[in-house]
Amino acid sequence: MTQAAIEQENKLIAQEYKELLRISYQTLSDDDKKLIRSAFEVAVDAHKDQRRKSGEAYVFHPIAVAKIVASEIGLDAVSIASALLHDVVEDTVYTLDDIDRMFGETVARIVDGLTKISHLKKDMNISQQAENFRKMLLTLNDDVRVIIIKIADRYHNMLTMDSMPEHKQVKIASETLYIYAPLAHRIGLYNIKTELEDLSLKYTEPEVYNDIKSKIEESKEEQQAYIDAFSNTIDNSLKQEGLNYYIKGRMKSIFSMRRKMKAQNVGFDEIYDKFAIRIIYKSDAKNEKFLAWKIYSIVTDHFTPNPVRLRDWISSPKSTGYEALHITVMGPKGKWVEVQIRSERMHEIAEKGYAAHFKYKHGEQKEQGIEVWLNKLQEALENSNANAVDFVEEFKLNLYSKEIFVFTPKGELKSLPKGATPLDFSFNIHTEVGMRTRGAKVNGKLVPLNTTLHSGDQVEIITSEQAKPNQNWLDYATTARARAKIKSVLREEKKSVAEEGKEILRRKLKSQKITLNEDSINKMVTFFKLKTSLDLFFRVGIGSIDNQMIRDFASSYSNAFISFFKNRIRRSPAPEDIDREEITSKYDLLVFGKEEEKLDYKLSQCCNPIPGDEVFGFVSVSEGIKVHKKNCPNAISLQSNYAYRIISAKWVDSSQEEFKADIQLTGIDNLGLVSEITEVISDNMHVNMRNLNFSTDGGTFTGKITVVVKNKGILNKLTENLQQINGIDKVTRL
């Protein structure tokens, strides 16, 4: 580069610095300015020999990220300095210790978090990417600003991606849609989220993007005319009330248009709510809410509202802090239009997210705002041992899910994702409450734990020391937090059952002169068609693999000569990764229909489904029910031509299955007999009773009890134990 060009570039860099200070959203003290100045000088020095792909000096990138952090997100001086330094440790001679020494521990910690994220390999398959994402979220333990600066960094990369090769553009854009846009949404950075989505679409579906973009450009004047017509209708009424306000229209984003076109299967012209109108009013804190509803009543005087589409986020703000009143009204020319009513303060929060909260708080409170939010994210991360792809999926579910608001018995408001159940609510209150949940009342009425909650419900949880999670709870809970906790308890329980099972098995094999070692375990796993050794121990523990079955195995095992030939004929694949951590809820039983009935069936030849595949049943004319995989080549034609003959089917684990059995008891009536019977059943044997009735006649009694057991072994043991109760004459299974 020529001397003149270098001087010109330095001039530009200096200009950028002044601009950075000028646009900062938070007011900067002299100390703040000093901190930013020295961070700036270090960044310029560190990156002095680096250039970007486009040829410009590399230092323009950290400066641009710092500008986004300062003005668009509106963070503090520490964040601005960290943004300036975010690539220094990774790419230059400066070390983390240097940063710590020069800028203090907080900046060093944030820069370290950002460096860790950058070190994650970029070209990996999706599950690796998910794993990385999880690691990145776990760095949140250090400081949430890491994530926010990372979003700003990604945003700037997306803005300057033109000089990259196409495959990289598509990869980075997809990752942005998958990870960064949902995160920005969660943090309340709606503007950046929208930009990230639109920019991603620009690279993942360029034709669609350009097409929608040009259509929006074409209809700009038409939109403006519409907004003017709307404003003019209500302008006088608002002015008469002495309100100080302005109205602006906002076009929905290209990405959300694309989503609507896909979801409704329509073209651009057929989307009816292409834009929203915002009425932003000036107000002091005292009258804010009152004025919002005043404006609401004026708007609805002139335009008919859609009664179903009122959203009041002023009385109960979203968990991101967003406040506004949204209504959809029938606007001019018979078009539905969304009207958002918000004060200037609310508007600022909507634009800036958390930063705006801090601006309106001072000192101690300022810190608390970010604390509350950190805790919310922390919950999603608490269970860090789930598999990574599930983790991202659950995280995404929790990010994008709509919220409902329910009340505790004392009248506190809690926000939960849409579709949440009383079980989710109990874990939301506290993990311990969740674990001990026995039942729930909604609006004073006892309801099943899988009831879907609605906004405005008042929920009371009934707990009991004896209650503990069971397998069914996973069907009842929808939030990531509740599911993670339930899974970990069930895993622990299964492990302890499996440990007992292992000991029982060791003893039983010993009596058959077989040692429990890797070889015999592997052979047993194959013999019982299981997946892991833990499966085997678990089933022995609950008694679904009983003595007779173990004897059958022993005779085939001892007869090694015969089995050697058998194996030559039918080479059984050695089960892979024995002794994996989790117990696979493996499946060996098919059930059909909503009632999950057991029916006779045949597995179809065309797709050979195996346990665990997603399947459906097809009622054939001559062969009864044939079971096909959902992705079977014939599935589509069967489903479209013979939909009425299709029944849903799924695999269940027979060891997880519970069966109902009726027991009849007869004997001599005496005081306390009923409590003794129930004690044997529920306390000693931990078996669930569904119903029981007793009748006495002339000193004798007959009783009938319905119990739920996992297998016949447990039932036999139960009848034995009941037989031993004083006064009982006969116990029979009906």
TrEMBL record:
Residues 402-463 form the TGS domain. Coiled coil: none annotated. InterPro entries: ACT-like_dom_sf (IPR045865), ACT_dom (IPR002912), Beta-grasp_dom_sf (IPR012675), HD/PDEase_dom (IPR003607), NT_sf (IPR043519), RelA/Spo_fam (IPR004811), RelA/SpoT_AH_RIS (IPR045600), RelA_SpoT (IPR007685). SMART domains: HDc, RelA_SpoT. Gene3D superfamilies: 3.10.20.30, 3.30.70.260, Beta Polymerase, domain 2, Hypothetical protein af1432. CDD domains: HDc (cd00077), NT_Rel-Spo_like (cd05399), TGS_RSH (cd01668). One of its GO terms (cellular component) is plasma membrane. One of its GO terms (biological process) is guanosine tetraphosphate metabolic process. Belongs to the relA/spoT family. In eubacteria ppGpp (guanosine 3'-diphosphate 5'-diphosphate) is a mediator of the stringent response that coordinates a variety of cellular activities in response to changes in nutritional abundance. This is Bifunctional (P)ppGpp synthetase/guanosine-3',5'-bis(Diphosphate) 3'-pyrophosphohydrolase.
